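Q: Predict the assembly, please.
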Amino acid sequence: MTALLHVDNISKRFGGFIALDGVELEVQPGERLGLIGPNGSGKSTLVNCICGTLQNESGNVCFDGHVMDGLAAHQRTHRGVARSFQLPRPFHSMTLADNLRIPLLYTVHARTGPLRSAGDLNSRCDELLDMVGLMKKAKQMPRDLTQVEMRKLELARAMAAEPKLLIADESMAGLSHSEIDDILALLVRLNERGITIILIEHIMRAVMSFSQRLAVLVSGKKIADGKPEDIVRDPEVVRAYLGQ
Amino acid sequence: MSTAKFSFIAIAIGGLVMAFAHWFQVDYLFFASYTILQFIVLATAWNILGGYCGYVNFGSAAFFALGAYSSVALIKFDAEIDSWFSEGIASFLHHIFPLPIPVLILFGALVSGTVGFGMGYLTLRLRGAFFAIATLAMAVVLQTLIVNWDFVGGSRGAYIIRPESLEFAGIQVNYIEYLFALMLLLAVIALATARAIERSQLGFGFATIRDDELAAEACGVPTLRLKLIATTLSGAFMGMAGAPFPYYIGYLQPASAFGLEYAVNSIAMPMIGGTTSWVGPLVGAILLGSAQQYATVTISSAVNLLIVGLMLVAFVIIAPNGLIGLVQEWMRARRRS
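A: Predicted assembly structure:
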């Protein structure tokens, strides 16, 4: 089976600081990958390079058999990469339904040809809101939402683009125990629909229960990649997390 | 309501205004209303970029002046035809020139739209205050260019002789009425365009740029392309508003065409009316424009900018989302109770 995402030896530096240093990563279709690493290890930079918010200086990002280097973020979204942001970034001046309408209008519309009618669009929005349990708040503004609802909106908006790969960047930080379970269940449901998911998370409980495979970044380098049970026992990983 | 229906109603209202003014037989009414209409076009144009996309443009006067000066250039070109070209070409060109004002308007739109596109391409990687400063700088550069361009009068300015009247299918039309009608039509086109954008996919895209560009890109919105569309459209409409101006004013000099009042008014009017809807610039321009015209006649023309300043301060404090925002809030509160 060929990989859905192949990150080949990419590097990124900010001035003198090397954020990513020859990172290699492969993700198979339908896989649930957990990406962990201490603060400042380059996780978000890696996501930004995959999604096109930042451009990597060397190496390649291949997605679905195509090289994506040089493509703008919106073009990568059209190709099927979607992301949620670490801090939710909803469109503040729009209702929840309109927030979801944007990826439908600009990505699904552009990819598969016109959505047939306004009714089509509305029913898609409703479906997505229903999926994350925000149906009752469709007409409300993002400022009326709680933290966990905001994260769900963020995921729903990423899902609206009908991606092949979803990158969830710390979508559980700051949530309570039961709220984390809520989001996890949602992510597993999405995965069951055939969407490949990369989960970036600090909360080990969530990462361990969700991931089929774990990759560890430390100081811009990937130091481990494998089964979650093995990774947490890896002496190098333990050293990176706990110090010596 | 469809755009066609909206335009039809707007033209009907405009026709009524026109008939009313004609009935009074006062030229001044046309002069004063022309200025207000011109500001409706300018404010609406500014709002396409400033209100919908959230990019504050301080260089409105430059786009307006470019429209005006492209007309002057074409009028001067007409005067020079005989000395520049051989007889054959000259006689051919005399068939085309002088160009009617609607063509000048299109030409102004082309010039200002092109400059708008160029400005967008060069500066749209900047955001917030940096973008605003860049537009201000562009206005200064363009003014310097015009001041040093002798062909269009340089710093001396240029006189444009306005005909008394115009024959239109056998009917004599007062020239100021003709200019008024043109500006009225432009205002209708500008408002209909702004309204159509608001309801379209483009409008949704513009709003995402205003809210959060990074998130917009992640949703698949081609932000750079949309911003270029906005700067081009906005610039083109400002150029259109400026193109008939030399005929209106009779004497055009850089200091008046690049005047502070155009830049300030085109920002203040949407702000006072409300930037999220096409109604905002319309209401703001009528309100502020009328107040200024009234002050010009009764107190002095220098009070103009003072009025703008005071109203802007008042609105920023009382109604930061403009009159439209105030009404919307009031309606929302009423629905809740």
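DSSP finds nine helices and ten strands in chain A. The first helix of chain A runs from residue 43 to 51.
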